[in-house]
Design a protein that fits this description.
- Helix content is 73%, strand content 6%.
- By secondary structure, it is mainly alpha-helical.
- It has one domain (2-60).
- It has a two-stranded antiparallel sheet.
- The chain crosses the membrane at residues 5-25, 37-57.
């Protein structure tokens, strides 16, 4: 049950962070690595999304769901 919840979070988190949370991060300040915060947030999640997919793959593989 816990693994299913973790898989759900790993699937939901990238899509939610790129769509639902945009109004809260849509600001210029602070500037991180020379980028406005919104651009940094989007770039961060573009990099983190494949990591989440990889984690879901390995969790399902350990359960025997992928052959």
């Amino acid at each position: 049950m816990v693994k299913k919840f973790i898989i759900f979070l790993l699937i939901f988190l990238p899509s939610a962070s790129l769509t639902i949370f945009i109004p809260w991060v849509n600001q210029i300040e602070p500037i991180l690595f020379g980028l406005p915060f919104l651009h940094f947030w989007l770039f961060l999640w573009i990099l983190l999304s494949p990591v989440c997919v990889w984690a879901v793959y390995h969790l399902q593989k350990s359960q025997g769901g992928i052959e």
